[in-house]
Amino acid sequence: MSKAPIPTYDICSLSMGRPASDDILVARFSDYLAAHQDIHFPHRHSFYHLAFFTAGSGSHTIDFERFPVKAGQLYFMIPGQVHSWFFTGDIEGYVMNVSAGFFNAFLQDDAYVERFPFFSGVSREGVVQLPEEKMTPVVRLFEAMLAEMPGAEIYSLDMLRLLVLEMFIQVSRAGSQDEKKEVAPHNYVLLRNFRKLVEQHYMQLRLPKEYAALLYVTPNYLNAFCRHMLGKSAGEIIRDRVLLEAKRLLINADISIAAVAYQLNFADNSYFTKFFKKYEGITPEEFRKNIS
Q1: Do 240 and 230 touch, CB atoms closer than 8 A?
Q2: CATH 2.60.120.280 is right for the domain spanning 8-180
Q3: Distance of CA 148 to CAs 76, 103, 134, Å?
Q4: Closest among 237, 186, 175, 165 to 208, alpha carbons compared
Q5: 65: left (phi > 0), else alpha (psi -120 to 50), else beta?
Q6: pLDDT (tens digit, 0 to 9) for every residue of the chain, 292 residues total?
């Protein structure tokens, strides 16, 4: 188990050579692993991170949810998510690290990429399995990105932006039927705002009615909306965010259970333990033992 806080890497700390920009890195997965052999332990990024597997086996974990490695699989992560991996055999594919501001000079809407369902920050929504016939076009896009990475050609950064956005759109189109449904603009705005409010206030605000007031909707409407969009009530979404942060804190063995409860604004350690066990099925102490 980690004996220190989960490390957070910035995009420059994981650069390889002299890229065309400090805002983006695209590399072959095998080369990335060879250059960064020490980052398979749990860690976070301050940037968007994605990987595309074309061959290999093993597993990778995003926010404590484990996924088997499969050819044709992509995983997308937003800044702040925790992940680790355990690969077996040779891993082939591509990796991309891109800053939140990479598209700002190109798009009027600086939150445009958040529209893609795989950038929701929810682990399962960030893992996409491409059908075999859809792999080749995505491979071609990554190869084109690699060719632009040295920045030798004029407008290389703009071409990279175009290629990355095309890849996002192609992956969205190749997803499940539910993923292919574009969210209506007004629903997208409400969902994005709710999730951002939860991210900002989950330690203090735990009731759906508190978020409904901030969003100028009724609690009943917010719950019905969340069930329609995400299959969960607003209360479940808030609770899941609290549980996720509890797990992120518990992985640090130097922080006591009581200190975790305090940081998460629980009245006492006993209440936190009951809350955690009710929804996770195990106590915080048992969770720590399981991840050691």
Answers
A1: no
A2: yes
A3: 21, 16, 22
A4: 237
A5: beta
A6: 444 567 888 887 777 665 557 889 999 999 998 888 777 788 888 999 999 999 999 999 999 999 999 999 999 999 999 998 999 888 999 999 999 888 887 888 877 888 888 998 889 999 999 999 999 999 999 999 999 998 888 899 999 999 999 999 999 988 754 444 555 667 878 988 999 999 999 999 999 999 999 999 999 999 999 999 889 999 999 999 999 999 999 988 888 999 999 999 998 899 999 999 999 999 999 998 887 6
β-bridge mates for residue 55, sequence order: 92
Domain boundaries, the chain: 8-180, 185-290
Query: How far is residue 12's CA from residue 194's CA, in Å, rounded to a whole number?
Result: 31
Q: Are strands 73-77 and 48-62 parallel, antiparallel or unpaired?
A: antiparallel
pTM of the predicted structure, to 2 decimals: 0.81
| Phi (first) and psi of residue 65, to 5 degrees | -110, 125
- Residue in 253, 292, 246 with CA at minimum distance from that of residue 1: 292
Question: What CATH code is assigned to 185-290?
Answer: 1.10.10.60
Q: Where are the alpha helices (DSSP H) in the chain?
A: 29-35, 132-148, 156-174, 177-180, 185-201, 208-215, 219-230, 234-250, 257-263, 269-280, 284-290
